[in-house]
Write a structure and sequence with these properties.
The structure is a homodimer of 285-residue chains. Chain A has 285 residues and is α/β, with parallel strands linked by helices. Helices cover 50% and strands 13% of the residues of chain A. Chain A has 11 helices and 9 strands. In chain A, strand 1, helix 1 and strand 2 form a beta-alpha-beta unit. In chain A, helix 7 crosses helix 10. Chain A is elongated. At the A-B interface, helix 7, helix 8, helix 9, helix 10 and helix 11 of A face helix 7, helix 8, helix 9, helix 10 and helix 11 of B.
């Protein structure tokens, strides 16, 4: 199928991300429906006019009419849903997701797809420090990255439709990575940074420091407000890549610490010059 | 002396911070002069109209007419200047600084003051990732913290004048800490965060990751563009406090790493809940 404004889209899981998808797609005129275990989420989405129909049940009719099904569930919930209900999905339906880890999941999900149904993985690199459909906002996709994560079994058509979805959602940059490349990258730029922010915040009871913190401390700890259930699941599902990144960071940080302990001014300056040079690349984009 | 718009202010060291001070004070109508070793900095400041007079020499007349002298030099340069020229400062002059470390410096600087001259230390917690008077901007003080750092020998009048200076400069919060309290705090909220940002940036040649980084990586590494000469000096001058903070962070980060390695989901979640609770204090301010 070629994704366009006439496609019928079913979103399974109507939280912050599912809701933001619905809001973005509704603006284009897509026929959007939703399945959520929370009646209040369905009610909100119907009242806001961002879905035309919704159910708290695994509604066979909603599944059957969908051209595209987007899963906005936590990773283990997603996998459980697929194992239990994937047989209900009709041939020629395209299935995608928003999961933040890939290697441990994508090929298994693909293996449960009925004949004629294709699952193409994707990772929208956007979010907020709050959850729930009531906090959903399609503007979080502006300026953000959308990554299509195909395996060797995906068709060019599915990859193309998934890229088009990213464009409809309003992402700025859309790229393609293998599941393994994706997980190594995400271990570094996203999961490691969350580990650092959490550790910095748990270092001490810094209540009394609120009056003295400049921008740097606030910037480094913004993401320390974190959904503990979701992120511990993401960390565990990307364990080996994340451990590699954490160990590399430990090595670098310990090396800087030892230079300070040994009064190695030149060593510290060399590290600072390297970090300055590398960081400048990011400001050129 | 009571600081007001009729006071004559001499700024020694006309870089990013000295220039930003001059811009902020000039708006109030202060008579601002400057000493800088760069003729181009003096020329820029005269052309911009943010000083009325300036010299690349240690100008006796400029020093003699000043009611307030503000040192905007690097820590070791500052200390060297004081040792060499402090005798030129006239009685009843108030002297202050912008240095980012205090314990190792403040009492020594005070010991060199001639009779009748008072040095009151201060730390403006503001800056930019660029240097030089041409990049100076008084708006960097908006919303920022100004810390007055008196010792037991300072007078209430000098502390009050220094607080007034912070207000004239446009700082949002002005507080008072001892040199030791200041250094412990700054080791945590500023120096440790810079160590983390530098280490994260030196972890790997992340040139190819520019397309995939979300806000979190950019936020955590913004301060990785760093003045290597200044910051290595600041680190070394606050070595013991900074090492304590680095070791505490290493302990927390390693503990999170070990929880991941041991599949300790509940332990990770507890850390994330603690960090979320603590970070929320910062968003209430």
């Amino acid at each position: 199928m070629r994704l366009d404004e006439n496609s019928k889209v079913l979103i399974v899981g109507l939280g912050l991300m599912g809701g933001s998808y619905a809001k973005a797609l509704k603006r284009w005129g897509f026929h959007v429906t939703a399945i959520s275990d929370q009646q209040s989420s369905i009610d909100y989405a119907l009242q806001e006019g961002i879905i035309v129909d919704g159910s708290t049940e695994v509604d066979h009719a909603l599944i059957a009419e969908a051209d595209l099904i987007i899963f906005g569930l936590y990773p283990t919930t997603f996998l459980h849903w697929i194992k239990t209900y994937a047989h209900l999905i009709r041939p020629r339906t395209l299935v995608t997701d928003i999961t933040g880890v890939k290697s441990c999941l994508v090929r298994e999900v693909q293996s449960y797809m009925p004949k004629g149904v294709e699952f193409i993985a994707a990772h929208p690199m956007a979010g907020r420090e709050v959850s729930g459909v009531e906090n959903s906002d399609s503007r979080i996709f502006q300026g953000a990255n959308y990554i299509v994560v195909p395996t060797e079994t995906n068709t060019p058509e599915a990859i193309e439709s998934c890229k088009r979805l990213g464009k409809f959602l309003g992402f700025e940059r859309i790229s393609v990575l293998s599941p393994e490349e994706h997980d190594e990258m995400i271990g570094f730029v996203s999961q490691l940074t969350h580990c650092i922010a959490v550790s910095l915040m748990t270092c001490s009871d810094s209540h009394h420091l609120v009056d003295y913190t400049g921008d740097s401390f606030r910037d480094l700890t913004r993401i320390a407000r974190i959904n503990d259930v979701l992120w511990s699941e993401l960390f565990l599902m990307n364990k080996s890549a994340l451990l590699r990144q954490m160990d590399k960071f430990l090595e670098e940080f310990s090396s800087l610490r030892d230079m300070l302990a040994q009064d190695d001014r030149e060593g510290m300056q060399a590290k600072m010059r390297l970090s300055t040079e590398r960081r400048s690349w990011f400001d050129q984009k």
